[in-house]
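User: I'm preparing a small set of examples for a lab meeting where we compare how different chains pack in three dimensions. I only have the primary sequence for this one, and I'd like the structure in token form so I can line it up with the others. Please keep the answer compact; I'll paste it straight into my notes.
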Amino acid sequence: MSFLGIDIGQTGCKVIAFSVRGQPLASAYREYPIISDQPGQAELDSAGVVQHCKECIAKVAAAVQATDPVSAMAVSSQGEAFTVIGPEGEYLSNAMITSDIRCELQVGEITERLGRENLYRITGHSPHTMFTLFKLAWLRQNRPEILDSAWKILCFEDLLGYELTGEAVTDYSMAGWTMMLDVTRRQWSGVILDSIGIEAALLPEPRPSGCVVGSVKKKLCEEIGLTENAVVVTGGHDQPCGALGAGVIGPGVAMYSTGTADCISPAFDRLVLNDTMRDSNLATYHHVVHGLYFTVAFNLTGGNLLRWFRDEFGRDETRRAEETDSDPYELLISQMPTQPTRIMVLPHFAPTGTPYFDVSPTGEILGLKLSTTRGEFIKALLEGTTYEMKLNVEILARAGVEINQLRAIGGGAKSAAWMQIKANIMDIPIVAMQVSEAACMGAAMLSAVGSGAIDSIDAAVQQWVRPARVYEPSKPNAAKYRERYGIYRRLYDTIKPIGQELSRLT
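Assistant: Understood. Below is the structure token output for the 506-residue chain.
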């Protein structure tokens, strides 16, 4: 038997089958476009996403059917994006994703009405345009006919589960990320829902991660090549699923994910709702591991900063990579010097994440000289994104969430040079994991435990999670980075007034 981890992201979906001992057996991936036809809009065609997921499931199921047929599956999903479902199961809306910022007005209105402190106390989150709550408020004000016709409002984990089983169920981590769950009571908040005119009956039932939702419909099993006994298990938000896949199941350890964005996500064993977390926009919500809580420190400019450089200034490396069947990113990174640079990059090339939640920031590159090399510039970009995450780690420590080890996943974890920069700046050991697709693995682990094939999460982590390499900080370079980081900490407050003046010009 095998277990599927289904990861539904903003630009594509991936499905991986794992054996009962955690070995990857087969995988499939499909991309889909983001719809941005008007200012502030960022949506996905929900029907298209579900169809791509089914195609990936079918491809992977066919690959393992003869030797390890699929017995269970779970979904790791991007957060907040939701789809409104009509009474006949029809899709009444596209899914508004993280970067859809049309609800800025509604963020201000609801925050003023309910109070920032009250919102944080109930939901464990600070107000931001990314969250489902405010996107639904925008829909209520601008397209009320959609919500008036709604039968259910489902995020992608819930939506695919509903399509596969006919049951409308979510897990606590996904429900929490909508900013509509009472994080203490583990139920939808009447106060929050009343503020946007939504009834709890329109939302899926919240359950713990790792619970059986139901069996896959018989007809659908035939269509996509699954055995009749295949079940769907509650998965979770992609960040805690990834953390589980990296073995983050206790305090002191955090996942460090480097993809389009940079995320550092620790687990802790108590509900932390203090002023430091709130003022730094650090959420507290449920981990996919029972009894643990979770937060996400993130910067929306992460690996996409290196991709920007590749696309704008790395055409030669891209061409050479195509000719030699190599990785253009490695060709770029190989040009970096060994020593820390004297260039400072404030990596706010997109709306910031924690701690600022600044939707109109100003990125900055300081310290350029005529002698600056291409390699120095590339390295400075990676240093800047890491300085930003170090800032978040320091804030977490002040809030009482200590991190002693970072476990690296995502595309960036495959680069030894990049990982060593992170270890040196963080001055914390970084463990690169053997399976970098940890979100899929975490979801598959939940399905294996939830279906009864593995006794517990602890047992699953012991069997499945394997480190590939440990990057220890270099003491000389760590000391140099501490000095540079002292300068970095002053950049945001220094640059912001200038950025505001620039914004007025444009």
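A couple of notes for your slides: Residues 196 and 439 are 32 Å apart (CA to CA). The mean pLDDT is 95.

User: Perfect, thanks.
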